[in-house]
Amino acid sequence: MFYREAGQFKTTYLADSAIFPIRQDRIGMAVILAIAFVVVPFTASPYIFSAILIPFLILSLAAIGLNILTGYAGQLSLGSAAFMAVGAFMSYNIVLRVPGIPMLVAFAGGGLCAAAIGIVFGLPSLRIRGFYLAVATLAAQFFIIWCLTKVGWFTNYNPSGVITAQALEILGYRFEAPAAKYLLVLCIVALMALAAKNMARGNIGRKWMAVRDMDVAAEVIGIPQMRTKLLAFAVSSFYCGVSGALFAFAYLGTVEPEAYNLDLSFRILFMVIIGGAGTVLGSFLGSAFIVLTPIALNIFVHFLDNSVGLHVPASAASNLEVMVFGALIIFFLIVEPNGLARMWSTGKEKLRLWPFPH
Amino acid sequence: MQFFFEVLIGGLLSGVMYSLVALGFVLIYKASGVFNFAQGTMVFFAALTFVGLQEQGLSFWMAIPATLLVMVLLGLVIERGVLRPLVNQPQISLFMATIGLSFLLEGIAQIVWGSSARGLDIGIQDEPIQWISDRLGLNVSKFDLSAAAIAAILVAVLAQFFSRTRIGRALRAVADDHQAALAVGIPLKQIWAIVWAVAGAVALVAGLLWGARNGVQFALTFVALKALPVLMLGGLESVPGAIVGGLVIGASEKLAEVYLGPFVGGGIEGWFPYVLALVVLLFRPEGLFGEKIIRRV
């Protein structure tokens, strides 16, 4: 009823292979983009920008990166935070050491460095599979963070091992206000998400999925395994790298290598799994879930404290948050193992049929 | 040379401690194909419960069976509440569920018993054995040696359990092929419940030893990260692999820290085991003793 494509005829191949072939999707997407680009910047408070929207977008980008690797190409990785760190620290160094380089070029440079490192740590994937590979990517996680901590060059020989990201300045405009930073991040994320979507539904994406479903069979039908897997590692690390650079420049400002620890890697993996592996939409849904849940729990505990008068000690409150977070993850995995994106597509199916049962 | 042997022996003995944690992983992976990331938290949970019960006035010998009971119950509840609803899901979903589980257990343990760090005394001192230092001039910790002995006993018991008892044979059958095991009448659910209970018991032993060594504190959950390279090196489904892997990782990690560490700024214990395991995996993709994965199209 609400979501029916009856009567929408496609008369050209171009229309048939469009990214949103159904009119309702196009309208929905336009509305979402309009809200994100026009309505939100004028209405949201600085707190919402800097505590919710900016981290949500940045982590979505990282989740898209990991989703390319894990969801599309089927290579489980636990080291995505390390690639974010590479992106952040290399962007910092590029801006620092190359005078007058445009900020966006520096971000791309950071991303490319992450991609190069990603290829190196992707090499074992040609021989190692499954959980062995997952644990092998932990080597990347621990080694890279150790390297960034120990080698002074990366932090410009700062004795405390912390970098302070340079001011965000593009074409002479300084992005200082939270709303401005938000718009910048939104532009980058939207463009890269579009690119990811197009890669995933094109030639490369199909190769990735073939390798994911069965790599030996893929090789037999002529998909070069090495190139495909390494490309997945490179693209994924590039996305993570850019996201890590944004994390440092637009969100935290001052970062140490430990900010990109194993915990962050796990959180990004949660986003992919809870959002839905192998979907770009899922990366956003998962990121929203992981970013919003702790904040919502925190507000809930404060609400208990202030309104109901039920006092929860600070230590118990943080433990309670961890507990509920863990329980929610288990709950979602049991209810919908294919992620929130699958929920959305079942919802669409229901909307198409409503009010008829079949 | 003497210093070298001292480091080597210290490393080997601490490697045995890693094996203890890795053993819990192997048990569950072998029988149900679940990579149980929560094993480290279960170790922490067991140690904290034990200390908590002692603080409630239970004596040492009373607290052990009580904690064992708690751990077995915990294993059963996990199997029933988390694993069974997720049967037939992709392995990665199960893995993520166990990460969620580790958050949940962390929270529960600390809410029930408080989050302050505590000591745990199991009556074995961490001091060099006089007899050996007199004869050979080597300092070998009494505690480490006892821990190694306990681990050896545990492995021997588990090996007997796997090869001699009815349940053990059923476990191996399940590990080989779920469906074939079901077809010959092995109760799969019961077997999984038993495995989780045994994993809980192994976590208790590991928790007691680790807790006695490093104190019972939140950092105890990170022993899982020490056990992962051990698992990879030894092979995910091999009990002897966990032991050999633990010895290799423990010894090489300590030797690398002492002889290689000063040249690169130290602190390499965190990643060296992983890189070592990675290098081994490049030559043997299923670890030293893991089952060969045969891929057919």
Strand coverage percent of chain A: under 5%
Q: The biggest beta sheet of chain A, please?
A: 2 strands, antiparallel
SS-based class of chain B? mainly alpha
Number of helices of chain A: 14
Mean pLDDT of chain B: 83
Question: What are the defining features of this structure?
Answer:
heterodimer; A: 358 residues; mainly alpha; two-stranded antiparallel sheet; 72% helix; B: 297 residues; 13 helices; 0% strand; globular
Describe this protein's structure.
The complex is a heterodimer of chains A (358) and B (297). With 358 residues, chain A is an all-alpha fold. A two-stranded antiparallel sheet of chain A has the order 1-4. Chain A has a two-stranded antiparallel ribbon with strand order 2-3. By secondary structure, chain B is mainly alpha-helical. Chain B is 73% helix and 0% strand. In chain B, helix 7 packs across helix 9 and helix 10 packs across helix 11. The model of chain B has no long low-confidence stretch (mean pLDDT 83). Classes of the chains: A mainly alpha (358), B mainly alpha (297). At the A-B interface, helix 6, helix 9, helix 11 and helix 13 of A face helix 4, helix 10 and helix 13 of B.
